UniProtKB/TrEMBL annotation:
Upper taxonomic lineage: Bacteria, Thermotogati, Deinococcota, Deinococci, Deinococcales
PANTHER family linked: PERIPLASMIC BINDING COMPONENT OF ABC TRANSPORTER (PTHR30290), PERIPLASMIC OLIGOPEPTIDE-BINDING PROTEIN-RELATED (PTHR30290:SF10)
Entry protein name: ABC transporter substrate-binding protein
Highest rank taxon of the organism: Bacteria
Chief localization: other
Length: 524
């Protein structure tokens, strides 16, 4: 996720005078560097589309959120008790170095994720694959492999769960479950992210951190019906939003990965010239302020409640040109479990001041607010800083590049308060509440940023995981109300993406899981 291309990169690059050698190339620009390309680690909205373009999973999503087979021949066979899943793998899928994409590659990948040394957000017993038979023994170093993953032949793999989990198939469609080339991963144990060997519709040609990444079409990709239509995708990194927009207006950038910049948002949307460039889509996600319940002063519930009343969400939406819908809760609009009965806490700084006094902090307190270099989050951080000051919380802002920001806030104990966001990895409330609030997710690399711990909530979330979708909804809604009553986060807004796209680019859409589907893009 070479130096920046100072000369405008045209949409179609000719390598030679002969039309036969024309290369179909598209340029995307991001304001941040890519965090990682290691599918065991990366789970943010910038690197997931690239990982999805480089690595193949057993199942996937194409249009919408309906699961379809990818490396698997079908959606698999499930035992009557719902605890055993068996898949047959298509033959002939190879990594770029010629290694086979077989059952062993999938088994290795999932064991690699489970290994705590991987620092994967899904590592250990608490991760998505901790429910596999033998996972605990493997994680504890008592077994060399996971007994619940069986490979009876090179193209058959089965998974034995300890208890049924309706979302297990969804896990298998995420990059965490991508087949991984063991030979390459073990050759570069400390820097696999920069040396990934893929098997997807694209391959990684180059990546100069903070400058540019280049993806090239995989000539040996197995699924010809869904092969990449472009020859190359150039991804410019750490390019300011304003410079990226200027280049896009001149034809040198085709897609603004970070969306239409706030400063130019109104003028772009009102301009007839750019009407065909703008695509908007409501995202299944939530941006929020998190407060670490394990660190002072936010270990005091009264302080967290005070912060909830101090935040002016309408003002925050104004700062981002209304590109969102005010959030009253964590579960976003469009996701089963979103609860229309949940009312907003309400902007009431006077009440916030009274709560601070009740907490014994009438004279105020100092803290540090963590955010990223993303333009919108920087603006929001400044607004939150001002709003906190009104109730007596003096917050200095610490701004970090994306990769460092993610690493810092997912390291327990390093942050007291900060800004973050979460988008769906699969269409289920279990992709939000357990990941963001279960006690065992307050761990290195995991996303319980608030250090929230509530045994009653944990029990409800576990119960919801073991029942069907319809039965899970009231359980998740009950758990969410319990979480909100403890004020570990302040939900801010559910985002609406406004993408700026060269109209010559065909088949562009903002996928509800993958964001950008590079392999679908084509040129007129």
């Amino acid at each position: 996720m070479k130096r920046f291309l100072l000369g405008a990169l045209p949409l179609t690059v000719a390598l030679a005078a002969s039309p036969a050698l024309a290369v179909k190339s598209v340029t995307v620009a991001y304001s941040a560097d890519m965090h990682t390309l290691d599918p065991a680690i990366g789970d943010d909205v910038q690197n997931w589309p690239v990982e999805h373009a480089l690595f193949v999973t057993l199942l996937t999503y194409r249009e919408g959120t309906t699961l379809v087979p990818w490396a698997a021949t079908d959606l698999g066979q499930v035992s009557k008790d719902g605890k055993t899943y068996t898949f047959h793998i298509k033959k002939g899928i190879k990594f770029a170095d010629g290694e086979p994409t077989d059952a062993a590659a999938f088994k290795y990948a999932i064991e690699r994720v489970l290994d705590p040394k991987s620092k994967s957000p899904q590592s250990g017993k608490a991760g998505w694959f901790g429910n596999l038979e033998g996972a605990a023994a493997f994680v504890d170093g008592k077994a060399k492999d996971v007994s619940g993953i069986k490979t009876p032949d090179p193209y058959t793999i089965s998974f034995q769960l300890i208890k049924p989990d309706r979302t297990f198939l969804n896990y298998l469609a995420t990059p965490f479950a991508s087949a991984v080339d063991r030979k390459a991963a073990e050759k570069w144990p400390q820097d696999y992210s920069h040396h990934v060997v893929g098997n997807g519709p694209f391959l990684l040609k180059s990546w100069v951190p903070g400058q540019e990444m280049v993806l090239v079409k995989n000539p040996n990709y197995f699924d010809k019906a869904h092969a990449a239509k472009l020859d190359e995708v150039h991804i410019l990194l750490s390019l300011s939003d304003q410079v990226a927009l200027l280049r896009a207006q001149r034809g040198g950038v085709d897609v603004l990965g970070s969306g239409v910049p706030s400063a130019q948002f109104a003028s772009i949307l009102q301009s007839p010239q750019y009407k065909s460039y703008v695509h908007d889509a409501v995202q299944i996600g939530t941006y929020y302020v998190y407060m670490n319940t394990q660190k002072a002063p936010f270990d005091n519930k009264l302080v967290r409640e005070a912060v909830s009343h101090a935040i002016d969400k309408k003002r925050i939406l104004q700062l981002i040109n209304g590109r969102g819908k005010i959030a009253t809760q964590i579960l976003p609009l469009g996701l089963a479990g979103n609860d229309p009965t949940v009312k907003d806490v309400g902007y009431d700084p006077a009440k916030g001041k009274a709560l601070m006094a009740q907490a014994g902090l009438k004279n105020g307190v100092s803290t540090t607010l963590l955010t990223s270099t993303d333009g919108d989050l920087t603006k929001i951080a400044q607004a939150v800083q001002q709003q906190l000051a009104v109730i007596g919380i003096k917050a200095s802002i610490k701004t970090l590049p994306q990769a460092e920001w993610i690493n810092t806030m997912t390291t327990p104990g390093t942050t007291a308060i900060g800004l973050s966001g979460w988008y769906q990895a699969y269409p289920d409330a279990s992709d939000f509440l357990p990941i963001l609030f279960k006690s065992n997710q307050y761990a290195p690399g995991s996303w319980n940023l608030s250090g929230y711990k509530n045994k009653a909530v944990d029990a409800l979330l576990d119960q919801a995981q073991g029942v069907n979708l319809k039965a899970s909804v009231p359980l998740y809604q009950k758990a969410q109300k319990m979480i909100l009553a403890d004020y570990p986060v302040v939900p801010l807004y559910h985002p609406v993406a406004y993408d700026f796209v060269n109209p010559k680019l065909q088949h562009f859409s903002h996928h509800p899981v993958w964001g950008f589907l590079y392999q679908d893009w084509d040129l007129k």
